[in-house]
Design goal:
Elements lengths: L5 E4 L3 E6 L31 E2 L8 E7 L2 H12 L4 E8 L7 E5 L2 E6 L3 E6 L7 E10 L2 E8 L6 H10 L18 E10 L2 E7 L4 H5 L6
Length: about 220
Amino acid sequence: MLANHVLFIDGEALVIDKPAGLPVDPPRDGSLSLENHLDGLTFGFKRWPQAVHRLDRDTSGCLLLSRNPKAHARLQQAFEQGLVEKRYLAVLEGVPKGEEGMIDLALAKTSTREEGWRMRGDPAGKAARTAWRLLSVNNGRALVEFRPETGRTHQIRVHAAEALGVAVVGDPVYGQGGTPMLLHAASLTVPRAGKDPVVAEAPIPAHFIAAGFGAD
């Protein structure tokens, strides 16, 4: 029940703690997605809420939904204008060099018959910037905070793998896969004109704790 995962709610917006493994958009194979849960997230409204942005299927944490069309347009505009503060936590397969920095690596989509599509660093791609900070190290793995300034597809995953040289644990595309992916949208702040901002924080998920990273 996603109704038990609500982190923020008012007349315009709803933030849920999306579980890892739940896709936002309906998959081609017909398996369950966020859409199958929207009826249980109306909280007295007749309209279903609508996702304002996307999280990858295997990424857990803060997902913003709008509760009416006007709010949806305003909230989406905040994302497009780069006004939204997003904070992610990731466990990486190794320890990056340095303790913090700004990754400035443009991204482009590439597709091959063998591997399917993926994103990669490409100077001719779309601008992508991510601030990062090392939080802790445990058993040769690093817990890193990422604050993306742009919202490109797979941005943090590619920036970790290509710019830092250490992929997110469990990443099936840019890393070794094989285990749950340890990438979590930990907090979200969305400014609103004339209103208090939408502020939400998602607790550390169980699969992070199982991997030895119970707190940041």
